[in-house]
Design goal:
The protein is mostly helical. It has 6 helices and 3 strands; from the N terminus they run αβββααααα. Helix 3 crosses helix 4 and helix 3 runs antiparallel to helix 6. The longest helix has about 40 residues.
């Protein structure tokens, strides 16, 4: 039955429209003329068959996308895949550059605030300046105040930026 349907569908490529007709008993027929009044009618879209090269490229892509494939040889990638990879890398590089610029601004701000307070530890790396300052602030509080402070404490934006940089592999 499937071969008959295929033959009927593709024999009409040189002709006009193909109609799928279903009669009251559920019998299906494909024909070039509209269905008789009592039959349900559907117009069938006939598409050109893919080229052998397109079929082979789709097979190769499917093989490379299988979960058990650990390594994809770049020589086997299609030009479209290579372009997508290059666009993704360029987008991620742009994000990393932007993030690094913001981190540098934040680090300068941290050091400037430390110098403004005239703290003695301003020559430390920015992350250590933050930790030292917070420890100094905590030491001024009693136990209950320390508990409340730590419960409501949000991480400094620099630490969040550093996590994103690591997540996006910006250091590579």
């Amino acid at each position: 039955m499937g071969a008959l349907c295929f033959a009927v569908l593709y024999s009409g490529l040189g002709y006009g429209q193909i109609y799928k007709c279903v009669n009251a008993k559920g019998k299906v027929a494909f024909q070039e003329t509209p269905c008789p009044g009592a039959s349900a009618q559907t117009e069938v879209e006939i598409r050109a068959a893919p080229t052998p090269a397109a079929v082979e490229e789709a097979r190769q892509i499917n093989r490379r996308m299988e979960p058990d494939v650990e390594y994809v040889n770049p020589e086997q990638s299609s030009p479209m895949e290579e372009q997508a990879v290059q666009e993704y890398k360029a987008e991620m590089q742009k994000k990393c550059d932007n993030l690094k610029e913001k981190m540098l601004e934040e680090e300068k701000k941290i050091v400037a605030e430390c110098n403004k307070r005239r703290d003695v530890y301003c020559d430390l790396p920015p992350e250590k300046i933050i930790e030292t300052y917070e420890d100094k602030q905590l030491s001024k509080l009693n136990n209950q105040q320390q508990y409340l402070y730590l419960q409501n404490k949000k991480p400094h934006p620099l630490f969040a930026m550093k996590k994103f940089a690591a997540l996006w592999a910006c250091d590579r």
